[in-house]
Amino acid sequence: MALDRWVAFVILCVTMAYGYAAFFTMDALLPPFMQRNPIWPSTFPKVLAVLTIITALIILLGLEKSEDTGKEPDIDYRRLGDYHLIPALTLLALMVGYALILRPGGFLFATFAFLVLGSFALGERKFHIMLPVSALASFIVWYLVDEVLGIFLRPWPFFI
């Protein structure tokens, strides 16, 4: 089986467990006044689980493939060294670092640092564009989540 189908199989297994939790365990803990709402906290996870299961099944069954059988697969797992693994793994490490620094460092600093370091890792070298865009994007996302949606995000580090 090709690498893309193995990845789709793993994603399908994880998503089925996620979907089970979204459909059967999240709604049991709702207070009675929320049970009559049209949209519950589990609505987005349910939609996400269904769409991901459908997409994984399409890839697993090979429905997205064209009829050209003479071509080699898009990703050859025997030649993984030929791909740009260092930027991809760096970006994954930055995502983990972002998750770890988000609470103590504050949203604005953590998001700004992730965007700058992530774009640098992916090859962007125009700092005069990268720094203001990262700062503006961090502030706009924080403003929309905190002020518009009313979900508190600590903007500054814990010591401020």
Beta content comes to: under 5%
Structural class: mainly alpha
Helical proportion, percent range: 55-70%
Q: What is the domain total for the residues?
A: 2
Helix segment tally = 5
Main beta-sheet annotation: none
Q: Which whole number gives the mean pLDDT?
A: 86
> What spatial form do the alpha-carbon principal axes imply?
flat
| Elements, N to C (H/E) | HHHHH
Number of strand segments = 0
CA radius of gyration? 21 Å
Q: Spans with pLDDT under 50 lasting ≥5 residues?
A: none
Distance between the termini: 53 Å
Question: How would you characterize this protein structure?
Answer:
It is a single chain. The protein has two domains: 3-66; 85-148, no CATH class. It has helices spanning 3-25, 43-61, 85-105, 107-121, 127-148. The chain is flat, with a radius of gyration of 21 Å. The chain is mostly helical and 160 residues long. α4 packs antiparallel against α5 (127-148). The protein is 62% helix and 0% strand. The chain is built from five helices and no strands.
In short:
Pfam families: TctB. By secondary structure, this protein is an all-alpha fold.
What are the key terms here?
single chain; 160 residues; mainly alpha; 2 domains; 62% helix
Topology overview:
Blueprint: H1 3-25, H2 43-61, H3 85-105, H4 107-121, H5 127-148
Helix pairs in contact: 1-2, 3-4, 4-5
